[in-house]
Amino acid sequence: MEIEVSQEKLSKALNNVSRIAVGKVTLPVLNNVLIRVDDGKVSLITTNLDMAIIDFLPVSESKNGVTTVPAKLLAEFVSNLPKGEKIKIKSEDTKITISAGKYTSVINGSPADDFPELPEINEKEAVVFKMGVDEFKTGVSEVAIASSNDLSRPALTGIYFNTYDKTLAIAATDGYRLAEKRLIKNVQSEISVIVPTSSMQEVLRSINDGMEEIEISFNNDLVRFRLGEIEIISKLIDASFPDYQRLIPKDNNIKLELGRDELIRITKLAALFARSVNGSIVCEAKKPNIFSIKSFANELGENDSVIETEVSEEGKVNLSSRFLIDALNSLDSKNIIFEFSNRISPVVLRNQKNTDYTHIIMPLQS
Amino acid sequence: MYNVWENVLAEIEQQISPANFSTWFKDTNLISTDGGHIIIGVKNSFYIKQLRTRFIDLITNSLTKNGVTINDIDFEVQQTTKSKVRPREVTAASDLIKTKVSFKKSQTDNNGLNSKYTLDTFVVGSNNDLAVSAAKSIIDAPGTRYNPFFLYGGPGLGKTHLVQAIGNELLKRNPEYKILYTPISHFYSDFIDAIQNGKGKEFNRKFEKLDCLIIDDFQFIVGKEKSQEEFFNIFNDLYQLNKQIIVTSDRLPSQIKSVDERLASRLTWAGAFDLQLPKFEDKCAILRAKAELMGAEIEPEAIEYIAENVNTNIRDLEGEFSTILLMSEVRGLTPLELINNGSANINKTTKLHPISSKQVVEKVAKYYQLSVAELKSKSRVSNIKTARQVAMFILSKELSMSTTKIATEVGVKDHSTVMHGISKIEKDLKLNFTLRDQVEAIKEKIYG
Fold first, then answer.
1. How far is A363 from chain B (nearest CA, A)?
2. Nearest chain A Cα distance for residue B71, angstroms
3. Residue A1 near chain B (CB below 8 Å)
4. pLDDT over 90 at B175, yes or no
5. Cβ proximity of A348 and A323 under 8 Å
6. B22 at the A interface (CB within 8 A)?
7. Which value does ipTM take for this structure?
8. pLDDT tens, A109-132?
9. pTM of the shown model
10. If DSSP codes are grouped into helix, strand and coil, which group holds residue B295?
11. Going from the N-terminus, what domains does chain A have, and what CATH number goes with each?
């Protein structure tokens, strides 16, 4: 195997694929990146057996062959080489020689036979969605924040892709809050699958400037994301996601319109005084025009900030300041809608105009 | 069948590297061998691909060696190949929570009755049995013995529930029966409207034809002299026709300011029935009934915890209960787990207003008919000793005082005596019902 490629391109590709090649798994070859050349088509592949990243590398010269090299080592070596340098990688048995101008090094690789073969998407059966990369990135990051790390409930460690009313929506919840984003309208196919949040985060990290469209293909228990030169394949989580539509309250009677920046500011202020009570703050609406956030710490003192807004129903609710800030950071319009009712019903947050994004937070016990 | 797979694995382990074995085979299992159709369960599709391309011959050979007929081999993704034990799955199937908390719109006809209130769902306990038996005899024979039926008690103890249930039950037995349920506030606002629109007569007529009038929250009549007079007239008319009149209030009529004495005495002609705070057992019974009604199953320990910690009224009790069920559904933990991990702290405000340690000691002493000095003495007489330990227990549980402080408060040597006392009471409470009643009664006295 032999390739010749520019330092920038190789370094970028290696940095991208090497993230998941971490030595947690029992199989040492999973720390390696597989480099395969097949009639001028060069692919760099890593996998952790939950997902795989494939980067198709444009090269100037190549000779067919396949090998595997420790991914982190190769990535760091290449990134430290001077920019603009032409890099040559050549393998003989398991010895890989990397040379660039006056720098040469030899790395011990291992045979490609041990490297797992990747499962494939059945193109005929796959359900495919295409959308703009920017909307995808915003949508996923707004939703992923609500996802859980609790492995004992696998369904909550993923992002739920589902279709209803001809809309593709994604949702995540950790049991304390829930976020939903409607991604694509007027879709024909139906789907209901959970993609691991960790895989989604890798997809987001692989996005870089100049990418325009993302193609998402679902098939049995696999999903594939296609982003320009990059393909990410991930397993799906085989569990059932809670019927989350039922969790979104439809009849919260207290509806407030609040300036987002101001609300973030006073929530942060209140959070300072809420550290000893796990960030618990009290949001209160009072007629005719007061919305206040209160918090107090026995030893530090207390905080009470007010935003003026139209209030037609009074009430108060205890919330975690951290969850509220997370939610507000995921909203993006100047004014946001803050809805609540009694203390059992969750708080609903939305952008003022665009209702594609919904974030709900379970209130805390007062 | 599953043993076969153990054998197959043992054999494969001999033939490939440990790394390969533990990576690819550790979490597999054999799902089915029916009719030579082999199905092997694996973690995800990455494993399927690998086993199919690289290890299929090995698997086929080992299976054949172990006497399994093979027509074809299939793989299936199984998240649960090595199921992490989830908290919910530890409990036996019957203990599983089925929390379906649905909030149905209640139906109200123009008689003001809400059909969700029935006697079946009213939990009878020592705190309300008299009132309930009176209610039952009203249903059997309205307008006779318990007329007027005057029911009083604090907020959230079930007054509305009980009187609405009477109304619903009467209606069930005789659909032609004309019943009107109205909170007194509606009564007087309707009355004022009627007067303003010159329809005073019509207002009167509305009541004349009734077979049963139910007035809720009568205490709000305060300061509404005209309405009171009107009510008095209606009351007299209905009473003379032997129509059933039911009135609820949060206190006795004689204690409501500015209620005409004649009316006050008439309201309690047939006696006044009170609803009291439920005792611990009653609270548990209420929660169990509520759980059944909602189709939710909840551990007995969780019920006890809620019953023990909500001391205000039944409405709060049910409120906390619903909150915990909802949280348990959302978080996927059983109610008891929620309580144990501290995320379902019972609302602190449901504990009543704070009291001083001195008051506690005084009340306990008084309850056991001792002087404070006696309680604090070194006496080992059994009832004094129990009183002292109960005082320690309440100081620790209700005021969260440190054991050292409690020691000085009840006059014992040091904190270890206190700790012993508290744990003794804790232990006895589980078995000794008299003691439990005593502690409840003292708590009621302290907070009441």
1. 10
2. 23
3. no
4. no
5. no
6. yes
7. 0.76
8. 888 888 999 998 988 889 999 999
9. 0.57
10. coil
11. 2-114 (3.10.150.10), 127-246 (3.10.150.10), 248-361 (3.10.150.10)
